[in-house]
Every structure is written in C-alpha cells, then in structure tokens.
Amino acid sequence: MTHVRETDSQPMTYGRHALPVAPMAMPEQVLERRRARPALFSVLLKRLAWK
Amino acid sequence: MVSVRRVLSILFCLLMAGLVASLAVGYFSADGIQWIDAVRIVLLAASTAWLAWGAAYAFNGLLSSPFRERKQSFELTPTSARTAVLVPVYNEDPVKTFSHVAAMIGSLHTLGVAGRFDFAILSDTRDERVAAEEERWFERLQAECGAHTAIYYRRREQNTGKKAGNVADFIRTSGAMYEYMIVLDADSLMEGATMAEMVRRMEAEPRLGLLQTLPKIVHARSFFGRAMQFSTSYYSPVYTRGLAALQGESGPFWGHNAIVRTRAFAQSCGLPELSGAPPFGGHILSHDYVEAALLTRNGWIVRVDPDLAGSYEEGPDNVVDFAKRDRRWCQGNLQHGRVMVAPGLKPWSRFVFVQNIMAYVTSPLWALFIIASIAAPLLKGVPDYFPEPGLFPVFPRVEQGLALTLLVGVFGLLIGPKLLIVLRGALSGVNDAFGGTGRALLNTLTEILSTSLLAPIMLMYQCRAVMEVFLGMDGGWPATDREAGSVSLSEAWSASWWISATGLVTLGLAFQFAPEYVGWLLLVAGPQVFAPLLIQVSSRSALDAAAAGLFQTADDRDPSPVVLRQEVILSRWRGAAQTAPVSQPVAEPALKPADAEQ
Question: From which domain of life does this come (chain A) (predicted)?
Fold first, then answer.
C-alpha cells in the first residue's frame, strides 16, 4: 500500500515520496473590505483639482 | 438555548464587572474620587469582565455535563469514505514525530480500519540536516507500517503561508482523493477508535464542516508541564463543555486534533495574505480561528465534542518555552483585529475574535491598573481634611474590608470554578480516576498555588509580547521544542532578569509613593522578583513527585494504548538508532492486552 512517487515532474514538491495528484480548488477568501471611501474621496479631489 | 446561555453569560460578566466597579468606587473614594480613580475603576472592571467570562465557561460546563459520564463503546460502521491524516512538521525531531505516526497506524491496524486512512507527512522543515533525518526515518516508518496503510512524505521548497499554507498545498495537490482530513500537529497522538468515530460523526451530519476534539497533554515531565497536564485532564473537559454549550454550531478550531470535511474546507478556508507588513499584515498566524469563522460564514457547522476521548498532544515543559509559543499566539490573536471586520462573518465569530484579542490585552490592562494605583497618591494630591467649616479635620478612611472583598471577588472568579469542579467530581465519581477527592483537591490547590506564583511572570511576558506587536516587531515562527527539559538558573536569569528588575522597581515605587498598597502588590511583584528561581524550579523533573501522586491524572493510572505504543516504538527506535541501520524493520512492540480490546 505504500505509495512512493518520483517528484521530478512536480515543481511544488521535492523528495522521493510525493503526494498523489488529485487537485482540489481552494479559492482565496475575501477577508478585507474594499476601502470605498478613500477611493471616492481621491476621485473627487482629482476632479476638483482638474477644475 | 445557545442564545439564552450566551445572553446569561454576558450578563453575568457585566454583573461581575459592575459589582467589582462598585466595590472599587467605595474603596478608592476614601479620599475623594478623581480622574485617576475613574481610570483604575474602568481598568479593573474590564479585567474582571474577562475573568468572569472564563468562569462563565466553567459554569456552563458544570451545568451541561452529564452527571454520570458513560464510556461510549466504539462501534465500527461501514464507510467508503477515505480520510487523509495530515502531519505537518517544521524542524521537529523526526524520530519522535514518526513514532507518533507509527503508533497511530498501529492503533488503526489493530482496529482493522487502517486501510481507510492515508497518512501524509507534510514537511515545511527548513533545516537541511533535520530534513535529511526526516527522509531517513520515513524509510523506517514505511518499512514498519507501509503494509497497513498508504504513507506519503513531501517537503515544500518554500514554506509559504506556514502551517495553513502547508495544508492548503496538500488540498490543492491531493484534496480530491479524500472526503475528510484529520489535521494533526507533529506532537499529536490519537487512538484509532477516536479517528474512526470522528469519521462516523462526520458521516452522520452532512452539514458538519469541522469537528474538534479536546486534546489532553501527555508526556509532561516537569512541575510546570505536569501542572498543565493536570489542568487539561481535570478542568479542561468542563471548560470545553461550557465552550461547546456557548459556541453551539460556531465552535472552535484549535489547528490540530480535528477532522475537517475536505470540500467544505477547500471551499471556505483559502486564506489570503493580509495587506501590509507583519505583524498585523502578511500571513495569518492564528489561522485556525479564522478558518472556523470562514466555515461558519459559508453555512458549515463547526463543533467541539468534548466526549471524544483518545486525543493527545504534548506541551512545553518550562515557562520560557511556553512564553515563546505564547508570543506567536499573541501576534496571531492581535492580528484578528484585522480579520474580525471581514464581510459576512457571523456575529458570534466576530465576538470570538474579540475574546482572542482580550486574552492578551488583559495583561497590559492589569499592568496599567497597577501603575495607576501606584501613581494615584502622587496625582491626587493632598486630601481635603476640612470638607466642611469647623475645628475638627476629617481624615480619609481606608476601607481595608472593601479591598479584601475586592481581592476575594477577583480571585474567586479564578479559583471558584476549579473548586466547584472538585466538588462535582466528588459527587459524580470523576475524582476516583484522579486518586480520590482528597488527592484531587490537594492537586487542585497545588495547581492554584503554582499558577498564582507563575501568573505575574506570564503577565510580564504577555505585556512584552503585546508591546512588541504594537511596536511592529514580527516574532516570526520559531519551531516548538517540546522536548526541551529543565532550564538552568543562568538560562532562566537571561530570560527573565528584566521581570525581576520590574518587580523590584514596582515595589520600590510602591514603598515611596503608595505604601498602603505594598502588601497587595507583593502578591504580584513578589513572584516577579524571584522569576528566575521560579522558572528554574518549575522546570525541574517532577517524575518522582508524580509517582507519589503529584498532579495525578486519569491517564497516569490507565494510560491510553496509543500513548503506550508510541513510547515503546520511540524507545525501540532510539535504541536502534545507535546500533542498527534505520531501514531495518524490527518486530512489533509488546503491548498490554487492552490495546487489542479497543
């Protein structure tokens, strides 16, 4: 039952006992709110400066 | 019911904080209330609320525990689910870590379910010498256990994202093969029956995303380690029942000795780097609580089941190593201030983040309270001896009775729950496994005494950790040396001379400016002055005292088969390391009959 694989073809790992390949997606989660107000503020400032 | 418990517990904390604040008002108003008194009262009330919150866990645990705990008999249920057992390692001693893996595989094999579990040792080791040893001992592990189960070993080139990144890398490489993952630490140990039961519970509740066990500490050798081992064995089941009752389906994840549904974890727990530089930005250090919050955000249940026995870990054996680990946890918990405002989190998850921050911020609050108390006589000036016209002055009346009530109240929140646990253990029969009620009470009082002596030292370490984080210093990710033994006096001195100095300065200032507080301050500053000695003495071996019953636990009398198995394997391997080639398989260790009965 012991699985030993060569890892030359897998850039993420090295060593002689690599993991079986069965990928699962793991999307990055949103933890930080987008700072809407400073962006809006800077847009307004730019517009005022242009005028 | 969970909501009622939460509301009542929060009300209890507010009530305790209010009571302490009113007592403090009475005491501090002897010479008139001024702004410095208001500061002191707010600091005291906030700190007391935190102590009361700990007590609320214990009370909830005492109320929700079954009076007579029945040992559950394990039933093997058929399942086609495959489970990966993940063992992330980072510069730990490979012989020891792999002996844990071998013991767990042996336990599963005895049960006849080893084929359902694959073991993956996920190395983030940076030390090339340790990495070479890992490869070498993996050969040995394979030779002995490879016939029973699949075992993998891989080492990352970069340890991006630390442990969370290590597990995420496994999911992105191999996650689709497994319905469940049991996440362990390098020092974790679990009975095969416990692992199989965790899978059964996951199968029984499709909404369950994560199931946490309560790991008990094993293999402690020093006075400090044995005290912690006694705490996790005797008090923690009650506190964890309280935690489970209060948190409900938004339970905790402690990063190891837990099972997760791979799909749920992959869908919910991909952690981004926080914007900005460490300590507040960058990789999330205390990732486990964040992952629990993200699972509940996505509608998965996160639960802790304190009745799941057979789950073990090891702990630091001295104050210095404990403080090093605490420094890392402190930085991670303070980082939760960034995460707690993440969109979509359940309100309770946000509250848990507040608790995690409070766990470290309370120490500076106590320190500020002490500083304010010493400074108060200076800042308050001369009292008004003639508040009304007349010949006779009115002298300030120091209410020592109120001060004593205040002290008893605050200490009562700390030690009251522990004494109630002894009382309940006497009534329910739990104490029998701890050497009887007399022994359990004696050990509880000894633990309270040793905790009281070491708490002022830990307070200083936590204050320093909080200050360093706020000053922008990144503590990094030092490897935990769980086998570090006793600390010499010179090592203890170099690690804590500044605590002694702080204690002396505190007492000196108190003599000078607030002599009426010197007696009270001795409770805090006294242990600080003797910090090096206390650290050294508490790190000494307590194995002889343990044999005589000091900090006796249920596992001392009836050790878990997987723990015994690991000890036998480790001693065999360590003996063999000096005499035989490591890849040579050796016969199975002799085990006590109970091992085959589980």
Answer: Bacteria
Give the DSSP per-residue string, B300-363. Answer: -EEEE-TT---EEE---SSHHHHHHHHHHHHHHHHHHHHHTT-TT--HHHHHHHHHHHHHHHHH
For residue B578, name the pLDDT band (cuts at 50, 70, 90). Answer: low
Q: Give the side-chain half-sphere CA count within 13 A for B546.
A: 22
Element (H, E) at B89: strand B83-89
Beta-carbon contacts of residue B48 (< 8 Å; ≥ 6 apart): B16, B17, B20, B21, B409, B410, B413
Of the pLDDT bands very low, low, confident and very high (cuts 50, 70, 90), residue B1 is confident
Decide if B120 touches A, using CB distance below 8 A: yes
Nearest-angstrom CA–CA distance, B229 and B488? 22
Answer whether B135 touches A (CB < 8 Å): yes
Rounded to 10°, the helix B236-247/B35-64 angle is 100
Percentage of the residues of chain B whose pLDDT score is greater than 70? 89
Are A12 and B115 within 8 A, CB to CB?
no
Inter-chain touch B269–A29, beta carbons under 8 Å? yes
- Domains, chain B, with CATH or none: 83-317 (3.90.550.10)
C-beta of residue B320 within 8 angstroms of C-beta of residue B487:
yes
- Please state whether the peptide bond connecting residue B456 to the residue before it is cis, i.e. omega within 30 degrees of 0: no
Measured in angstroms, the CA of B124 and the nearest CA of chain A are apart by 11
Q: What is the mean pLDDT of chain B?
A: 89
Output phi, psi for B317, to 5 deg: -100, 0
Helix (H) or strand (E) holding B184: none
The span from the CA of B569 to the CA of B269, in Å, is: 36
Which pLDDT value is given to residue A39?
62
Interface of A with B (CB under 8 A): 1-4, 7, 10, 12-33
| Of B172, B268, B338, Cβ closest to residue A23 | B172
ipTM over 0.85: no
**In 3-state terms, what secondary structure has residue B227?**
helix
* Chain A CB contacts of B270 below 8 Å: 26-29
Select the residue from A4, A6, A17 to test the B interface by mutation, using most B Cβ atoms within 10 A.
A17
Distance between CA atoms of B254 and B188, rounded to whole angstroms? 12
Q: Is B350 on the interface with A (CB under 8 A)?
A: no
Mind listing the pLDDT tens digit for each residue in B344-369? 999 999 999 999 999 999 999 999 99
The amino acid occupying position B558 is D
Instruction: Say if residues B66 and B429 touch (Cβ distance below 8 Å).
Output: no
Q: Are B591 and B192 in contact (CB under 8 A)?
A: no
B47 SS3 class: helix
**E-state strands within B480-526:** none
Quote the CA–CA distance of B216 and B434 in Å, as a whole number: 14
For residue range B31-87, what is the model confidence (pLDDT) as tens digits? 777 888 899 999 999 999 999 999 999 999 999 876 666 666 667 788 889 999 999
pLDDT in tens, B493-533: 999 999 999 999 999 999 998 888 888 899 999 999 999 99
What does the alpha-carbon distance between residue B158 and residue B542 come to, in Å, rounded to a whole number? Answer: 40
